[in-house]
Amino acid sequence: MSHRESDRRQFLKKSAATAAAVSVPYFLTGQNAAAADEQKANESNDRPIVGCIGTGSRWHAVGPNAMQLGDVAAVCDVDANHAAGAKKKVTEIQSKKGSDRQVDVYEDYQKILDRKDIEIVTIVTTDHWHSKIAIEAMKAGKDVYCEKPLTLTIDEGKKICQVAKETGRVFQVGTQQRSEMGLRFLQAVALVRNGRIGEVQNIAVAIGGAPACNSIPVVDVPSGLNWEKWLGQAPLVDYRWAKNGNTVNTRCHYEFRWWYEYSGGKLTDWGAHHVDIAQWAIGQSEDGMGPRSIEPIYAKHPVDFKDGMPVQDDRYNTATQFHIKATFGDGVVMDIKDSHQDELGFDNGIMFMGTEGRFLVNRGKIVGAPVDALKENPLPENAIAEIYGGSMPARGNAHMANFFEAVKTRKLPISDVFTHHRALTTCHLSNIAIRLNRSLKWDPQTEQILGDDQANAMQSRDARKGYEVTV
């Protein structure tokens, strides 16, 4: 038996075992599924109590989604302006439902974790805060919904997986492509797993490039923002902000994505979505799975680097252009790029290519000959349900509904921390490779970079005193 055939058989066995392990009860599939779930929860008077940690721009989707299925008792943010806005929004939404629940506001997330009445927390902070809060939340007995990308480093992912196993808490990662987007991505996974493109040979993942900017001046910290606490584990630096036309450049809030100190640029921001789907489709997100080698074909950064660290601190520093080649144990090659162009043409999405065809999937479409062939040869009736753990996603608010159902049943949600960690490891390894400008060998079973001590050390970061991520 060849190594590729052995890996494929192992994948199929693991897929069957995983489907059984994550099987969850049937989700409503009618147009009013979310409303029906909410009505049922209201009638039984057992809606979980939720605390919201981090209430910036992304929370304005996550928070209301959680309020369809639970009641928010407290909000927390180191920016008082965000927190005040969140309280107002929660109060308005819940009062329309006839609730007069008091909504408390905190700057310190520990206040939420200390509350015995709060069962669930949503974490919608900057990336570099996710792991510390999530670990402490699980230890405090809370179930967790955390936005992606889950971690700042590979080491943080290992720690989250350890604590999730030790505590048995339910943990959903906010990779909504696993549940929503018109089910296109679930259909893509089903096409691959049902052999509709034969043996997968190559996957092109296009995720866009990060922006660059000119030098950003040091300015006073805005009123209401606790800048020292916002920085958390990252180095203590000056606050920078500038506006050029309609474009805001800053070290803070949304633009934190373009600083390696707080995130991983597009490789983790969008890689957390598309690399996740790609590895899920080919069975490379399970324990012991992942790439064997990472090769940086090219990368362009807006600043210079020394020993893998940016030497300028006054402008964005994540890669603006890149092409990384990740090779997996079964021989599949994944090309992770800022953009990809061929006769189908796309600049964001996933192209699956096999011995018997290829197709493209992104948030707007799923196209290609294997997709066209479904008209005459549809997928098996339960193909997508099997991918989704034995049931179809709810129509409307599916990802949050899957999480709340898992909280009730204590089953793994569809986007669990273990598979997310494996997919995000590929993204983190890609960043390490382009920052050091050299290829890496990775052992996915021991989760170690082979023969490169400097690169291996970059699996973790030194945290500022008082903000360490510990288990």
From TrEMBL:
Pfam families referenced in this protein's UniProt entry, alphabetically: GFO_IDH_MocA, GFO_IDH_MocA_C2
Query: The Gfo/Idh/MocA-like oxidoreductase N-terminal domain covers which part of the protein?
Result: 50-174
Enumerate the InterPro entries for this protein: Gfo/Idh/MocA-like_OxRdtase_N (IPR000683), Gfo/Idh/MocA_oxidrdct_glycsds (IPR050463), Gfo/Idh/MocA_OxRdtase_bact_C (IPR043906), NAD(P)-bd_dom_sf (IPR036291), TAT_signal (IPR006311), TAT_signal_bac_arc (IPR019546)
Annotated Gfo/Idh/MocA-like oxidoreductase bacterial type C-terminal domain ranges read 216-294, 397-468
Q: Name one GO molecular function term.
A: nucleotide binding
Classification via Gene3D superfamilies: Dihydrodipicolinate Reductase, domain 2 (3.30.360.10), NAD(P)-binding Rossmann-like Domain (3.40.50.720)
**PANTHER family documented for this protein:** BCDNA.GH03377, OXIDOREDUCTASE FAMILY PROTEIN
Q: What is this protein called?
A: Oxidoreductase
